[in-house]
Write a structure and sequence with these properties.
Blueprint lengths: L1 H39 L4 H5 L1 H13 L4 H4 L2 H31 L11 H14 L2 H12 L3 H25 L3 H9 L4 H32 L11 H9 L3 H29 L1
Helix pairs in contact: 5-8, 5-10, 6-8, 7-8, 8-10, 9-10, 10-12, 11-12
Length: about 270
């Protein structure tokens, strides 16, 4: 008996050592690749090491103090409100589209593996394949300057971001409940409402809240390409080298992100 235990323990230690060896080899390969990349990209190490001093000088001499009076001007306040409206509308419309899309894109519960599943997956992949700012540029070219193009870009971002996460949550559910409902002769909508949604709803709500938080951050820079919001004034002030007024807008963005993060954290805890 003792010999069997000893053999089992030795085998376990041998497997553990082999696993640790492979992890170590993988780490060495990663480090070697990182150093090789530094050489290929010609990254100047001395400039990287000196960037903190230059950053401190720029902040103290050019960015501070922020010109907060500029952020209180009517046009800037209107752009802040527009940014919040874009993020909310884009997240809401995007979520309405994403929820059925996530159902179609979940292999285990999709109503049609031959048609709806590949179609839904393709839509999610395409919307994720290009950054939101590039989508905003395309939409501005189609619909013109303004918040409508920005809102559509945020709808796209919601579909790509939340769609993937929601579909993965649906694929991770306990299928025994779904199969029991299907065994009663229920249709696909009954399976969705009584077998799928009760299992994923809490996680989906968390994804929806986090997605709005992410879209609020996205909406602050869409103005760089003329898609509405406060990013327009940030780009304007940077282009004319008015760094203190640009810093005022950055401060507003930071405050907005902190408030949205606090609100999303509160909502998640209240709902859970």
């Amino acid at each position: 008996m003792k010999e069997n235990v000893s053999l089992a323990f030795d085998s376990y230690r041998s497997d553990e050592m082999r696993g640790g060896l492979w992890k170590f080899v993988g780490l060495l390969i990663f480090i070697a690749f990182a150093f090789w990349s530094i050489d290929v990209l010609k990254i100047p190490i001395e400039r990287v090491l000196g960037m903190f001093g230059r950053l401190g000088t720029m902040i103290s001499e050019r960015l501070l103090p922020p010109e907060m009076a500029f952020a209180a001007e009517d046009r800037v306040v209107d752009s802040i409100i527009e940014t919040i409206e874009m993020s909310i509308l884009g997240a809401v419309i995007g979520t309405i589209i994403t929820m059925p899309l996530a159902w179609f894109a979940a292999w285990n519960v999709t109503p049609s593996r031959a048609i709806l599943y590949p179609l839904a997956r393709a839509i999610i992949v395409v919307t994720r394949g290009m950054p939101t700012l590039m989508w905003a540029m395309v939409l501005v070219a189609i619909f013109g300057f303004g918040p409508f193009a920005g809102m559509l870009a945020l709808v796209k971002a919601t579909i790509g971001f939340a769609g993937k996460l929601m579909a993965e949550q649906a694929e991770a559910i306990d299928m025994r409940r779904v199969e029991a409902i299907r065994a009663t002769g229920a249709n696909e909508l009954d399976v969705l409402f009584y077998g799928v949604i009760p299992q994923v709803w809490a996680n989906w709500v968390g994804i929806i809240i986090y997605n709005w938080d992410a879209q609020l951050r996205n909406s602050t820079i869409l103005g760089f390409v003329g898609a509405g919001g406060m990013g327009l004034y940030l780009r304007e002030q940077i282009s004319i080298i008015e760094y203190q007024t640009a810093m005022a807008i950055i401060v507003v963005i930071i405050v907005m992100v902190v408030l949205s993060e606090t609100a999303s954290h509160f909502l998640r805890h209240r709902l859970y």
